[in-house]
Here is the input.
Amino acid sequence: MLEKLAALAAGRRKLVLVLTLLFCVVGGALGGGVNDKLSAGGYEVPDSASSAAQKALSKEFRAGSPNLVILVETPDGVDDPGTTRAGLELTRALADEPGVSQALSYWTQDRAPLLHSEKGDSALVMAHLTGDEDEVAEHLKKLLPHYQDGYQGLDLKFGGLAEANRELTEQTQKDLALAEAVVLPLTLILLVFVFRGVIAALLPLALGVVAVMGALAVLRVLVVFTDVSVFAMNISTALGLGLGIDYALFVVSRFREELRKGATVEQAVGITLRTAGRTVLFSALTVGLSLSALLIFPMYFLRSFAYAGIAVVAFAVVAALVVLPALLAVLGHRVNKWSFGRHREKPADTGFWHRLSLLVMRRPLPLATGVVVLMALLLTPFLGVRFGLSDERALPQHAQAHEVGTRIAEDYPARAMSPLLVVADGTGDPRSRTTDIAEYSQRLSELPDVARVDGLAGSYTDGQRVAEPGRLYEQFAGENGTWLMVVPEVDPYTDEGQDLVTEVREMSAPFPVQVGGTAASFKDTMASLGDRLPYGLLIIAASIFVLLFLLSGSVLMPVKALVLNLFSLTATFGSMVWVFQDGHLKWLVGDFTTTGMTVATNPIMMFCVAFGLSMDYEVFLLSRIKEEYDRTGDNRLSVARGLERTGGIVTAAALLMALVFLSFLLSGITHMKMLGFGLALAVLMDATLVRGILVPAFMRMAGRFNWWAPAPLARLHRRIGLRDGDDDPAPAAGPAAPAEAAPAASAAPGPSDPSAGERSPAKVGR
Here is the structure.
């Protein structure tokens, strides 16, 4: 099938290239403005109890958590008469703005002590902007010009979720432009040295452009139907370039290899797609399936990485199997034009990777044990992980939302920005139940770690009413229900903050209630992640097992791949905590704010992306080893030759992909730094320690069982498995090795190596 595709692409090369150019123009035009349509949130569970409470607040009461916070600074003190008058007018003016459902402040809340700083030099105005994230962003865009330069002598700084999301979107656009400006020239320079030629070096970038243009066009269509995270742009660019480089390296290297062997251009294209093309197809399937596991999670932050990643993979593989063969057919031997250095085919039985594999296979157990112990040590920081949700601290320290959040955390006595919202919808006219509401508010205020409870019955602290009900508290009443604001004294992500959610939800109430707010949302998010994670892992494991079985005909190879790929993630998960949670290596990754927590969705996102990329190299290596094994039947020889044929290419691909991800360290957003650093580590660990030591060590110890499958599965693989139809079957146990194995025997260890000449007792899947 792939040879027919190669013939079609080569035969219609001009048409393919014209259509590709047209596709890039249309895709670029369609996806060029997608960034303005993307959203900065997506960490919460849309169908959870906390989300239901938030929706009821918005629909029935036109209220909710304060998503816009204004820090009012005044040198005269917050109780100065002039400041008080200006503060009241500011609050009222803000409440009258389109899209603002409620606004309250230190001056409207009977000078609540929770809403002014301990020094008395600043106070808070808090507002709720209505609508979904896109509508909130639009309201804020129209509102900001009226207040950015201050208000009646008051100095204003904006914070809260709405402002943080606005700044996050702007920062992402700046970071993406900077990363592209740096990484593209560096990548091209490295590609020139890898290919030792200019023309060949341009082909991976061409594939990357096609993949990115296609992915952006898909995202532009998706935003019409669903929310998509702004970070999908970053993963689209990184994966598009990374996979374009990977696939082009595999395909172009094999094409040049076949040309050096004397094949015609058409023959080289056909052989390349039948061998390297098949590997690319399987690689794309494994990466896509790993990313598809993100679709079972309800948070659109995670789902967006699946949308973008699967789209990029699809366009990258189409570009590699259709566009690249057409380009190679046009170029022919000119693919080596403007080259330098000597291009010659090295024997598969010499070279660094061949010698390394033989060394490892002489002492497989101690070397593998040492690597496993090292990787286990790199993982240990993850044992101290503490989870939370994303907030303004992910922004650069100079961002206004970050500054406001820091000031509130340092100068204010309670967590006024992250209250618990207790919603009682459908209780009838709440004014007829003020006694019940007062009694319930009083009991809530007596809970440990509660600073204040505001509601229709007034404000309560430690069981005592500190503010009488009146006009200012009418905002807590609806036509058929009421709601309360519970201001905690503890961080919502701590154990104490989570215990408070449980206590509020379990406390008996005079009417049915739903509990929302930051702490409740985090609790529901962790519960949802815990419930869905096993299914996500099962999807990845089952799909990868089936694919690798079809490729290898073995039941042990897929298990080995799944286990060893987990080892490549140890440094990623360890660095997530040691670097970004605990604040080490800032000199290397760039400055960021240490929060003491890890965003709960990040490990899952990084696992799926990194696991898929690691499997990319596994498929490439396994395919080449299987190709040698099908010809020789010699396990040790096939491992050594397969590693020699792929080691240099995999290492070069890993270095280039790591460069793409490391460009994220230029970002001012902590999430992007973590994503780039973690994925770069995973790719480099996989291409070196895992592929260079663990794979040959495991395959040496497994011996002839590497290619074993139960008889029923072996028969199944003979019927539906994938193999190169023109390869000669490998000999069964007993006959001498084919002549081509002789060089390896001469280079192999002497009698002290019991694996020399090791063969399978029977060919599986042929």
